[in-house]
Amino acid sequence: MDEKVQAVLDAYHARMREEEKDSPDKPGWLDRVLLPVGPETGRLINIVARRLETPTMLELGTSYGYSGIWLGDAARASGGRLITIELQDYKSAYAREMSAKAGLAEFVDFKVGDAVEAINALPASAWLAFTGIAATNGVTIWISAGSGPTTSMPSTAISSAIC
How far apart are CA 99 and CA 68, in angstroms? Predict the structure, then answer.
């Protein structure tokens, strides 16, 4: 991992530590905080994605872009692309800015809008699809060598695979 990517991840990690002090009971909390997959899961999705040959990766729920840094780094390393979709434009804008700071912007396509509509407009196959939507309930990764998702791995399996 290069210095720019590491610096951006360090900034996210600092933000995560600050957000731990914030109360989920405050109005708007869910929209303000990262709800990240965390560094261990980030490393895992980076390793999995790097193993694919020129993958097209799809991320549903960009949020503030933490997992997109891990996937964007893998896209650059493997000659692939990340397509990331977020409903909220302000979150996508933040993620785009962080991706640029990490030197990954040319490997990531940011889309804003309804995920179902955006998916229907994409080419028929994606090699790796990652959803961080409702990350508090787990992370789902689908790995596909064809035109659709074939394997679902819940966050508990991901966490177990790291230990």
Answer: 8
- Cα 113 from Cα 133, distance rounded (Å): 14
For residue 63, name the pLDDT band (cuts at 50, 70, 90).
very high
**Strands 128-131 and 140-143, bridge-based pairing:** antiparallel
Paired tokens of 72: 């964007």
Which domains does the chain carry?
A: 3-162 (3.40.50.150)
Produce one character per residue of 36-61: b if its CB has 16 or more CB atoms within 10 Å, e if not. bbbeebbebbbebbbebeebbbbbbb
Tens digits of residue pLDDT in 66-119: 999 999 999 999 999 999 999 999 999 999 999 999 999 999 999 999 888 888
The encoded tokens of residue 74 equal 């893998």
The structure tokens listed for 38 are 């965390």
Contact 80, 74 (CB under 8 A): yes
Predicted model pTM: 0.80
Kindly report the backbone phi and psi dihedral angles of residue 25, in degrees, each rounded to the nearest multiple of 5, phi listed first. Answer: -80, -15
